[in-house]
């Protein structure tokens, strides 16, 4: 009998819960994706990392505790030793948030500013690796032509050279790494909290700010008015920085290769993947290109 995705994840949940001294009885899946999230009775959320992400899971907990010590609103890990290891996976345990909605870019901006202003933490955080997995995705992609693959590899090389010679910008600091509204939660009393520190590292704060800039500039999903409010609340417009086109190019290439990866397993994503390639190659006119989500 074939085991479903939910059943496979629940088997791991049973193991990590037992290792933490908890019962998985009554657990409900929240989201099963790269990381599996489960809700346990009693207000505990279990986050099961994909295999090989033990260090990232430990860093997430360390970052969240460091933010708490520095009074930055964020999701809080449970107060026991973490992560817990079982079944070849690492799991972390978090306080369940009260009813909430995704934050807007205006909710996110002041949280990022506070995070970026913090001193360097007393634990190893790792440096931002903006090109991680890009070359591997291009090498493995079956849904791209040889011509497009070579162009994208050449484009990657140019961006790597540009990244190595970025103009002076804001002081490097701890950055969130995946700074969009979905990683900001707003609870019923209006308080906003940061969440998901899987990609937190040390690097240029402009990397975080480029997420919202690209939503405005590349995708057209954030209006000029909303983008202006975001910049005002943070206190800086990354689009005015000379290094912005490079960071935008890196983020766009990452999203192209992600779509190609998905298209190899999901025919519905094939058209979007090819459209993204055509956009970055200059075949679809100027931005915004209004890419749609895949995966």
Give a quick summary of the entry.
The chain has 2 domains: 5-96, Phosphorylase Kinase, domain 1 (2-Layer Sandwich), CATH 3.30.200.20; 121-178 and 202-280, no CATH class. With 295 residues, the protein is α+β, with helices and mostly antiparallel strands. Helix content is 42%, strand content 14%.
Low-confidence stretches: none
Strand order of the largest sheet: 1-2-3-5-4
Q: Per DSSP, what share of the residues sits in E-state strands of 2 or more residues?
A: 5-15%
Structural class: alpha+beta
Q: Give me the strand/helix succession.
A: HEEEHEEEHHHEEEEHHHH
What does the model show?
By secondary structure, the protein is α+β, with helices and mostly antiparallel strands. The chain folds into 2 domains: 5-96, 2-Layer Sandwich (Phosphorylase Kinase, domain 1), CATH 3.30.200; 121-178 and 202-280, no CATH class. It is built from 9 helices and 10 strands. It has helices at 5-19, 54-69, 105-116, 134-140, 146-164, 205-217, 224-234, 244-263, 270-280; strands at 28-32, 36-40, 44-48, 84-86, 89-95, 100-102, 173-175, 184-187, 192-194, 201-203. Strands 1-2-3-5-4 form a 5-stranded antiparallel β-sheet, with helices on both faces. Strands 6-8-9 form a 3-stranded antiparallel β-sheet, with helices on one face. Strands 7-10 form a two-stranded antiparallel sheet. Helix 5 (146-164) packs antiparallel against helix 8. The protein starts with a helix and ends in a 15-residue tail after the last helix.
């Amino acid at each position: 009998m074939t085991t479903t995705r939910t059943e496979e994840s629940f088997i791991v949940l049973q193991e990590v819960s037992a290792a933490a001294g908890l019962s998985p009885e009554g657990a409900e899946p929240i989201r099963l994706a790269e990381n599996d999230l489960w809700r346990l009775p009693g207000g505990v959320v279990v986050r099961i990392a994909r295999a090989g992400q033990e260090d990232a899971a430990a860093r997430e907990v360390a970052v969240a505790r460091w933010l708490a010590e520095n009074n930055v609103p964020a999701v809080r890990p449970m107060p026991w030793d973490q992560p817990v290891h079982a079944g070849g996976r690492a799991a972390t345990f978090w306080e369940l948030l009260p009813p909430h909605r995704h934050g807007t870019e205006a909710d996110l901006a002041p949280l990022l500013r506070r995070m970026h202003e913090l001193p360097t933490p007393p634990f190893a955080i790792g440096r931002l690796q903006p090109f991680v997995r890009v070359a591997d995705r291009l090498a493995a992609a079956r849904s791209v032509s040889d011509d497009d693959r070579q162009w994208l590899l050449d484009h990657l090389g140019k961006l790597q050279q540009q990244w190595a010679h970025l103009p002076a910008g804001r002081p490097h600091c701890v950055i969130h790494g995946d700074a969009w509204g979905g990683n900001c939660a707003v609870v019923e009393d209006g308080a906003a909290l940061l969440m998901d520190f899987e990609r937190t590292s040390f690097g240029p704060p402009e990397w975080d700010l480029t997420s919202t800039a690209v939503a405005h500039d590349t995708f057209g999903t954030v209006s000029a008015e909303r983008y202006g409010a975001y910049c005002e609340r943070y206190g800086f417009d990354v689009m005015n920085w000379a290094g912005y086109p490079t960071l935008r190019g890196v983020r766009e290439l990452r999203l192209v290769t992600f779509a190609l990866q998905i298209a190899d397993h999901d025919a519905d994503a094939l058209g979007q993947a090819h459209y993204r390639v055509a956009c970055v190659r200059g075949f679809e006119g100027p931005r915004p290109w209004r890419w749609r989500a895949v995966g």
